[in-house]
Write a structure and sequence with these properties.
6 helices; mainly alpha; binds zinc ion; 117 residues; elongated
Amino acid sequence: MFTFARLTGQLWKYRVWQVATVLAVVMSVAFFSLWRGNPAGLREGMTTALYFPICLFWFVWWATAIRCPACGQSPVWYQMRHGKADDATARILTGTTCPACGFDPRDSEAAVSGPAV
Ligand SMILES: [Zn+2]
């Protein structure tokens, strides 16, 4: 997905997802530590209030932000809904083409830059 995002000018969306992933992991650790005696002494209300919106944002952003410029589909959402669930993450992370329409940004990059001289 990194390559697809970079070649289609959507790398910033991928970077937002990376930051959201770190925040979601940190908030998950904080949230579940509340049930383990709250060793860090976190504010329960604030931790809970931040945990759910951050995790929801993380998922929705990941599922919808990066779009195929050819067909408008989200390759991530498409992969979540099609194929086997156990390798969906691998397909999402390694995919370089749109799984819905087959658009390959590497082809359009070559078309834009023209033939090598
Ligand atoms: Zn497409």
